[in-house]
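Technical note accompanying the year-one report. For the benefit of new consortium partners, we illustrate the data format agreed upon in the data management plan: each record pairs a sequence with a structure-token string. No post-processing was applied to the example shown here.
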Amino acid sequence: MPNPFRLGFLSHLRGRADAEQAYRENLEIFDAADRLGFDAVWVAQHHFKDLGGMLPSPFPFLAAVGQRTKRLRLGTSIIVLPFEHPLRVAEDAAVVDTISNGRLELGVGSGSDADEFEAFGVDIDSRHQRTTDALITLKKALAGETLGEDNQRLRPPAPTLGNRLWLSALSIRGAQYAAQNDAGLLLSRFVGSEEQAAGQEQEPVAVAFREAWGERPLPPRIGLSRGIYLGNDRQVALRQIEKHAMGGIPPGLTPEAYCQRTHIAYGSPEDVAARLAADRVLPYTTDLILQFDPIHPPLERILEMLEQVAKKVAPALGWRPLTPDP
């Protein structure tokens, strides 16, 4: 029986020390994910802020991951297109895809961090148009079409990478735009409402994407990102969340309120599996992408939770590793 979804793990490469340690620890985390049978790992691109994440350049890091792992899909969640030249994105992506034997999942989006836009000298109000323009060129390059007056083409070629393009979107309109561009839809764990469950708010977006996709040779892809934290029970998990939240829990918020604001499912593996099973977007999901962010416990604890995800949480949702750890 096929798996209901591909299981992924997303890291923002946060760290309490320096970038070298964050990179080293995350390479170890991704090695473990490969052994445990995860289908994919994803990394987020962040600029200038250690608390936000220490990886401004995902492609070199994913190239390193690809050389250390055997079967993991390698995802970007996301490359902020308004800061990038689309042909350089295409070239870097093509190199990683080539040396990893076609394992790259190329997630892109328009970004939202005002400080980053200011630092790059890009008007944040122009981000959607910049993304639209960049996406046209990016898709053209990946498809092997001619570029410029001299009819240049992307080297190395990546003829199938366009089928693994993803767009991050928050709205129905954004989801329809992703479908119009033959891209998978990446749904963030963060939504506008703290009170409303993320799945409840995002279900219409997923439905709109599926409807806009219609009948095509390739099936629609929806990547669902969700934050979780595991403990022996809910109270143990809350105590660890309070201790290890990056930047601390804001004054005036209880750990429970913090988890509600950041949409974290917490508790025992059974608690978390039940919360995910109740998510209204899960039935539409082709790629379930779990993360522990913004909670950053010691490496040993992260590895323990990763194993619990692979051996308890995801199996409770019907997933099985295709190549389990012997």
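Partners are asked to follow this layout when depositing records. The chain has a mean pLDDT of 94.
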